[in-house]
Amino acid sequence: MKVNIHTAPLILLGTALVASCALSGCAHSKSPSPNVANPAPGTKATSQQDSDWSRNRAAEAKVTSAAADGAPIVTAEPRNGQVELTWTPVPYADTYNIYRSLRAGDHSSEPIKRGIDTQPLLDESLANGTTYYYQVAGVSKGKELARSAEVAISPRDFSAPQSDVSSSDAIAIANAFSSKAGLVATGTPNAIYPYQEFKGSVARIPEHYYLPRWSVQYPSGLSIEVAAQSRQVVAMRAMGSYGDKAAGTAIPQTKAIELAHQIVEAASLKSAVNSSPTCQEMQIASPPKADTHMWMIRYPRITTDNVPFRDDDVSIMLMAETGKMKIMSANFHTAEPPITNRNVTTNLALTTAKQTLDSLKLTPVGAIPAPTEMVVQPNSFPAQRTSIDEKRGAPRYAWVCMFPIQQGRVEVWIDVETGKVIGGETAYLK
Fold it and tell me: What are the start-end ranges of the H helices in 273-365?
């Protein structure tokens, strides 16, 4: 089936990949930064103890320059977007000059700071993950003395969650994925952690399951994101454009699905999704162009006991005429819920759901489908009926009871263990 979309830009939930940007070949909103060092383990600082722990991690990551005759020995300690510098005093020095560079051994004659007479010095407004190279030189009666040996340091956010994947691991995973998926990954990539550019940008998802993550970015514009705990590839974006080339003939749907299967397997996501995806040919711009002519393939996420998630999937967009991947996103919002006792029958769930519908003074029309077991995140339905809360509960197994109504449809979610209404949604036709 071919779908023409000429309204709002397509949003892929979870990582908020805005197709209108990605498909037009626009630049990534953050330019790649130089190679990043391994992050130290960390946790979100939610207490004084956690804050102390983060400070201890930063202290352990500090580095000290080698000794040089007549020059200070410099110690650099990373902070979140900052570097703290201290140095040993130099005889006869009245003040100190500070030098900083983005390349080793490439210091200009102009210091970034002059006449410093106190320490520590905090160098601010820096990019986390970028390596900076510092030198310090004493100044005596207006004459600069010997510069220190160079010290290299990368600012880091030590409140970032622990990563079980190193930067080299993330790059290796991304390289293997790009090879298996037939992507063009040229040049030396940069690995950024934690990569949370899209955090909070999608309403109703307060915390994405696959945050934190590494972003491996290639000079060619290819970006591959690797989950810090599971080692799965969970997002991919490719730049590039066909310009104003008119839309042509799409590859067969069977070929598009075959290519999507290869991508899911290469991303190590095969066991997490239903093997029967939906597939639509789409043209998301007018007039039709090759750049916006897509195959959209969606794989519903499933639990280990084969129960589908209501809102989670793996979305893949392929260039319709070539089959080349443009975007891939694993939209997994929560961890899998624990196995529960299924005490509630479908008949009992339907009865409770109908009672809820009656309380809303809504009347079903036409045939009522049988309830479907799904994993949902509880919300405040029926108190809030037309949208899903931003604050949603921990995932639960539920019978999703769907009722067609004159104005649209209503879903009522019944907990399979307790039989209580734990959420739902009303979707009105426009």
Answer: 346-359
Signed CA dihedral, 352, 353, 356, 357: sign only? negative
How many other CB atoms sit within 10 Å of the CB of residue 47? Answer: 10
Amino acid sitting at position 316 = I
Nearest to 36 by CA among 157, 181, 203: 157
Nearest CA-CA partner of 88 in 110, 64, 52, 112: 64
Question: How confident is the chain (430 residues) per 10-residue block, as mean pLDDT?
Answer: 35 33 32 33 33 50 77 91 93 95 86 94 89 94 93 80 83 94 88 65 44 86 89 86 73 96 95 94 81 92 93 93 91 84 95 94 93 92 64 86 92 96 84
Within 10 angstroms of residue 202's Cβ, the number of other Cβ atoms is 18
**How far, in Å, CA of 382 to CA of 412, rounded?**
8
d(CA 418, CA 80): 46
User: Amino acid identity, residue 84?
Assistant: E
Cβ atoms of 422 and 396 within 8 Å: the answer is yes
Q: What is the rounded distance in angstroms from the CA atom of residue 138 to the CA atom of residue 90? A: 6
pTM: 0.62
Q: pLDDT tens, 358-401?
A: 999 999 999 999 999 999 988 888 876 655 545 577 899 999 99
Q: Say if residues 75 and 151 touch (Cβ distance below 8 Å).
A: yes
Percent composition of the chain: helix, strand, coil (DSSP 3-state, to 5): 15, 35, 50
- Sequence-distant (≥ 6) Cβ neighbours of residue 420 within 8 angstroms: 352, 414
Contact 404, 394 (CB under 8 A): no
Q: How far apart are CA 382 and CA 426, in angstroms?
A: 9
Q: Are 318 and 325 in contact (CB under 8 A)?
A: yes
Q: How many CB atoms lie within 10 A of CB 320?
A: 25
Give the Cα separation of 296 and 237 in Å (integer).
Answer: 14
Q: Residue 392 pairs with which residues in a beta bridge? A: none
Report which of 59, 75, 77, 96 is spatially closest to residue 149, judged by C-alpha positions: 75
Cα distances from 4 to residues 254, 293, 300, in angstroms, run 20, 9, 22
**What is the Cα–Cα distance from 206 to 394, expressed in whole angstroms?**
12
In DSSP notation, 94-131 reads -EEEEEEESSTT---SS-SEEEE-SS-EEE-SPPTT--
Cis check: omega of the bond before 369, within 30 degrees of 0: no
